Every structure is written in structure tokens, then in C-alpha cells.
């Protein structure tokens, strides 16, 4: 069986995109998804995303990590899927779609930039040396002095697999401050089990965490990630953080056909 695939990336966070509106892709085949994401024996990606029909919204997003397992929300993947949906003429410049963490609104801006509304964050757990919050996926956020020398894979894995988060684990983010509303971010992603060039839910978590602990009073945070630049905006209310948007490029890379 041959399938047509599309490759997209958002600040270096890359994804295999499949149009599954006909429901033909064998999405329970974990080994197949893992193989398609393999950088040596497959197409190569941090994850695989299916665009599917939904009766009430423009489309449904189904996201798999590169280990082949269905996962929680992926912010960069969501932005890339919006760009993919526009290329298929499923949407124009604005959309409403369903993901695993609920409803999302998004807008395609100029120069392949996509603004994606993320979930509201009601709870931010502030500890002595880290912050934990869920932005569609769970995130551990910690400040470090020398982020360039940080061993993200080793330190991230140690936290991800620690008793702190149990079997489910957590994504882990290392942050350093550049200026009042400008931060540097590196992320270890569970499911990928390595550092990725970018993580959208991680960038969202880092921005909110820095505001929550008083490192910034801004509600528009610029983040330098390994693969480029992202921006997170939000409104801080008595209920937490609302109207949260992840903004950045979502770029088509290539397309092809692969035998499965």
C-alpha cells in the first residue's frame, strides 16, 4: 500500500503529515508510525499527525510521537497542521479544530506564520527550583545559568523518568533569561526521548512559568529555541492564564509517496 505524505516543520520541530479524511491509514499500527518517523529507515520526524474529518469543526488533529504512540497536544504540530489544512483547501485563513486537549482556534498570518490558541491554564505549581504546569502536555520548567552547556538529554531524561512524575513522565524545559520579555529555551520531549529543536507546548509553558514566578511582567514573551523564534501571548486573570496564543512559522518542507 502506498501513501502520500507531507513534511512540515515549525522552528525545527518536524512532522509527517497525512490526509486521513478517508480513514484509510492504519493508525493503531504503532510500529508503522515509529518506522515512518525514523530518521534512518523512514521519512524522519519528531512526530506524525493525521488530519481527519470532524462533524462539527473544520478538522480533527490526531498526534503521535516518534515512538509510535498517540500523545497529548503538540503546539508546533498544531500550527503545522493548520498550514497543511490550508494547503489542502480545507480552510482559508481562520480555523477551528479539535485536538486531544479540546478545541483550538488558529489564524494563518503573513509569511507562513500561524497563530494558534492554546488551552487556558488554571493551575501553575511553583516549587523551589522548578515550575510545573500543563499547556496541553505536562511540562517541568527550570531556570539554568548556562543553558548552552546544559546536557539537555541527560538531565531531561533524569527528570522525565524520576519518581516526581511517575510512569507518565513529563516534558522538561531549561530556560535562561535574556531580557524582561525575552528568554532562551531548550526542551527534552517525552515520546521523542531526546532534545528537540523546538516544542510549542514547552514554549507556552516556559512563557507562563516565567510570568508566574515574577521573572517578567509582560504578557507577550519572545522565546529563542534551537530551531528559531516563537512568541507566546496571554492574559493573566483571577482564573489563571487565558487567551493563550503560540505564534511562529509553520513551513512546508517536501512531499512524497512511501510504500507501507
Textual characterization of the structure:
It is a single chain. The chain has 260 residues and is of the alpha+beta class. 17% of the residues lie in helices and 44% in strands. It is built from four helices and 17 strands. The protein has helices spanning 30-37, 75-87, 152-160, 200-212, and strands spanning 2-10, 13-19, 47-52, 59-65, 94-99, 102-108, 113-117, 124-126, 131-134, 138-143, 171-179, 182-189, 194-196, 220-225, 228-237, 240-249, 251-259. It has a 17-stranded mixed β-sheet that branches. A hairpin with a 4-residue loop joins strand 12 and strand 13. The N and C termini lie close together (5 Å). The model has no long low-confidence stretch (mean pLDDT 97).
What would the keywords be for this entry?
4 helices, 260 residues, globular, single chain, alpha+beta
